[in-house]
Write a structure and sequence with these properties.
By secondary structure, the protein is of the alpha+beta class. 25% of the residues lie in helices and 18% in strands. It folds into 2 domains: 102 residues, Immunoglobulin-like (Sandwich); 94 residues, no CATH class.
């Protein structure tokens, strides 16, 4: 009888385990269809193009299984200007994936500013690769990007230095960025003598040569981030701000 009861108990355990196994949810099928880029395919656009940098933006793709916030984007580039040579997945993946453009998440619009030692005055093909949770991939329509040409039209001394060596009422830095005053320091302790050497060193720390859109010096003067400089008095004119932009786009030479 004991052996019979043991046998019945064993059968019951096996049945119970089998029942549990049968309730295990099936694996989620993420599908084999890549993200749909149809409506966003031609949305890739550029802004703030410098000699070695640019900002890119594009509309998000959609996917039947992967939430929009989980679609991964990669920014790919290759030298050239014939878009038909960069509009297939294999062609795009044979190019160069910009490190700062990989693994981007999008909501409605995604953007990136990149500085990857591009060559000045050069045409590039740029494309976006969209990838869903199952690693299905598709690409957008490529666009041609041409970086700015270095022309050295603006120099630090005298052009940029002269714009800084003015009182705030004339949209300059004099009287504020002085030893013992606001940082960075451009003037000697008397507040009126412009220290060209020190100013050049200080400005260098606020500038990414070739990439004005990411340079604090330009962004504060242009008012694109934070409080626009100078905080009192007048702002630089559009033409003066453009001079700063050209100087940085040309590599911010401290000549």
């Amino acid at each position: 009888m004991a052996q019979f009861n043991q046998l019945i108990g064993t059968i019951g355990v096996v049945a119970f385990l089998s029942a549990c196994a049968s309730t295990t949810p099936p694996a989620v099928d993420l599908g084999t269809t890549p993200p749909d880029v149809t409506l966003a395919a031609d949305s890739l656009a550029f802004d703030a193009v410098g000699t070695v940098s640019f900002a890119a933006s594009w509309n998000a793709a959609t996917d039947d299984e992967t939430p929009a916030a989980s679609i991964v984007y990669e920014l790919w580039i290759v030298a050239g200007a014939t878009t038909t040579a960069f509009d297939e997945l294999a062609e795009v993946k044979a190019g160069t994936r910009l490190a700062t453009g990989a693994n981007l998440l999008a909501t409605d619009v995604t953007s990136i500013t990149t500085n990857n030692n591009l060559a000045a005055g050069t045409a590039y093909l740029v494309n976006i690769l969209a990838k869903d949770a199952a690693d299905n991939e598709d690409v957008y329509e490529p666009q041609v990007l041409t970086t700015e040409t270095v022309n050295n039209a603006v120099t630090f001394d005298p052009t940029v230095a002269a714009l800084m060596d003015r009182a705030p009422a004339q949209a300059g830095c004099r009287g504020c960025h002085t030893a013992g005053g606001a940082i960075p320091v451009f003037f000697e302790a008397n507040g009126t003598t412009f220290d060209l050497t020190t100013a050049a060193q200080e400005v260098s720390a606020l500038v990414i040569p070739g990439n004005y859109s990411a340079s604090t010096f330009y962004r504060r003067i242009a008012g694109t981030v934070g409080s626009r400089m100078p905080p009192v008095g007048n702002y630089m004119s559009a033409e003066e701000v453009e001079s700063i932009r050209i100087w940085i786009a040309d590599g911010a030479p401290l000549n």
